[in-house]
Structure prediction request, 487 residues.
Amino acid sequence: MGLVDHAGARLTAKPEEADVLVVNTCSFIDTAKQESVDTILEMVRLKTEGRAKKVVVAGCLVERYRDEIRKNIPEVDAVVGTGELESILEAVGIAPAQPAAPSPFNILRGRAEVRAGREAGAGTHKTEHGHAGLDGEKTFRPEGDARERQGRFSREDWQGAGHLLPTYLYDEATPRLLSTGRTSAYIKIAEGCDHPCSFCIIPNLRGKFRSRRFESVVAEAQRLVASGVQEITLIGQDTTCYGEDLGLKDGLATLLDALAKIDGLRWLRFLYAYPNRITGKLLDTIARHDNICKYLDVPLQHASAEVLKRMKRGAGAEIFLKTLEKVRAGVPGIALRTSFIVGFPGESLRDFEILEQFVGEAKFDWLGVFNYSDEEGSKAFGLDAKIPKRTIEARKRRLMKLQQGISKRGKQAWVGREVVLLAEGESEETELLWEGRTQFHAPEIDGKVYINDTGDLERLEAGKFYRAEITEAHDYDVVARVVGGPL
Prediction:
């Protein structure tokens, strides 16, 4: 988006108005692949029946099914993989702007225009086999190199996939468009993943773990805040590994400490923490800074030690409970989010009951449950004892029903509490309500705060922060009235 905008193209949120349609795809699980394919076919229809001249397919589906897309959907004019972001200008059919200018960080108005995960441009650290570390040499984590030798990143069976893994990284000078409004922004601090999880093909799609330079992340954050952004969410396949490939010790904690000192940054959070990398220094950093959100997202995937062993994850319910106890002791009042996979091959009823018992004891603030998706190319694809889909769906419903009760009791404890609220705009449910978030809600994935009383204010302004009191609680959402602000 940033590259084509910088090169002179005008972006539109309405596909029927576009001359070139770009579909950014996901290939993680079956439902995401199907959504991607359905969207491609819809854009092809707009090309054949409407004004569009080109359809370009980008992202992870291209890494996995490049040749099949070209063969089965000939109306697609170009494909751009996860390591080929520079190719977007040629694919779209426009020349790059010369000379390259610093990142403008233009902002698209309105959350609905374009979703958050589609905003990064192309990287400048691309090399043939790696990227520059602190000493200028190409480097990866030792775990990544070892797992490459073990075949973790093999793409031999993927027709059309490049033999070299993606090595793309964007930096602070990469042209970029923000699609998340003027107040909030995501910063991706790393690409790729080295973990051996047997259910996952992300390492094959996106390559080995590689961190952005420390100074690059800080520079981008400073520029974002200077442009008016007040909330930054750090993302990566595993943010807690940040800096290990650059020789940094406690890289994420050090980065958070630096970013938290940026004047004008009100909320800072990070997503996707690996459970065994939640260090004391990381927790101390979260607790020490008022503008680091008291929020931790730790996808645990399961609680049965046997299932976790087959997942190539390790640990189990007892270890996880001790970890959560350490987190809550280190950061009092922290909100905890996790996600689980049900129906992994070989998951017995006893395994599932261990998971249920763990969820009941852990009392997460936010919890997501995913049905196991049998992905060709993953190690789990070759496992026996596959679970019937009906059983998987029944287990998902059962676990979510348990969490619903936990969440409802937890939200009841919020009633009467005063919080700082980010107003996001009129509710999609009714124009009589507004929606907002607290620091305990990550963008787009958690429950909502419905605002039904603006107090002494005639109207609210989207993107502004207000003091509010929680007045009602439901299963996952709460209702609030504004008592002061904007802040």
Notes: The first strand starts at residue 20 and ends at 25.
